[in-house]
Amino acid sequence: MDVLATGVQRDERPLLEAAFAGRHDIRCLETTLTADTLPLAAGYEAVSTSVNAVLDAPVLEGLVKGGTRLITQRSTGYNNIDLAHAERLGMTVARVAAYSPYAVAEFAWTLALALERRIVRAAGRTRDFDFRLDGLLGRDFHGRTAGVIGTGRIGTAFTAIARGFGMRLLGWDITPNPECEEMGMQYVELDRLFREADLLTLHVPLMPSTHHLVGTRRLAEMKDDALLINTSRGALIDSAALVETLREGRIGGVGLDVYEEEAGVFFYDKSLEVMTDDVLARLLTFTNVLISSHQAYYTVDAVEEIVAATLRNVNDYVAGRITDSTLIPRP
């Protein structure tokens, strides 16, 4: 089968090509699939997309007209896909049900540690031969409280690391995870978690019920010196409300690997362009904000799992199989 993979990173391309070699013909493009790039998919029965693809009704209709019948997204999240319309069009849609939770959990901790110990500021100073400690005073995580919102595989991995630091563990989820409870986690209401957490991390999917989960009210509940980490989905946080909170000095630090308007920005070189997103531009001015470009998942271990799952999705489509990665089965 001919497969088009879009939004492919340079490090990801050889892994995809090696996995598909001798099985299916795959064409890898760095370009993200949108209405503007839709003609590139013409003639491909299977299209593999990145999480930043815009798969709304018009794009899906264009894909079907071009002959596409399978969308296999190389991510766990799929909020960018209009599933109801895809089903009406008779398309098959699959995702990566799971990959290394450690990649994201460890990166969330990377952001937290870098913020708390002022690593970026310190590294910048020493490059200029400035070896003062002024403004670099951090805190121990040991003995403080970690608030984990979402205790699936990634949240559980984050919790295990927090336990290793000797932190008090608070959690929130629809259903408590026995594995986290065995590590000493106490499940509480969101109000209490926001009030008591010194380090708050988000690991829930983006749904209507979690959109802007962290807004003006929740931010006001946080401790003034607390850290907020988001490696899940950008729209879990109301970015405008976050800017206002930071401007008022009411939060210790923020680590973001995702941003609610990241599509068309993250994964691209925008260094020679004017930043037209005023909220993102403002966030980047705060010295206690650390933003990375959706790279938490980006380890060899995780990408190899994602590539293997993508190949399985294509094979399952051909064979008519339904798996835990199937969002819409083949008609």
UniProtKB/TrEMBL annotation:
| Keyword presence, NAD | yes
The name of this protein is D-lactate dehydrogenase
**Which InterPro entries does this one have?**
D-isomer_2_OHA_DH_cat_dom, D-isomer_DH_CS, D-isomer_DH_CS1, D-isomer_DH_NAD-bd, D-LDH-like, NAD(P)-bd_dom_sf
Q: Could you tell me the keywords of this UniProt record?
A: NAD, Oxidoreductase
> D-isomer specific 2-hydroxyacid dehydrogenase NAD-binding domain spans which residues?
110-296
Q: Name one GO molecular function term.
A: D-lactate dehydrogenase (NAD+) activity
Q: What's the Enzyme Commission number for this chain?
A: 1.1.1.28
Organism expressing this protein natively: Actinacidiphila bryophytorum
Q: Name one Pfam family in it.
A: 2-Hacid_dh_C
Source taxon at top rank: Bacteria
Tell me which family the UniProt entry assigns to this protein. Answer: Belongs to the D-isomer specific 2-hydroxyacid dehydrogenase family.
Start and end of every D-isomer specific 2-hydroxyacid dehydrogenase catalytic domain?
Answer: 7-324
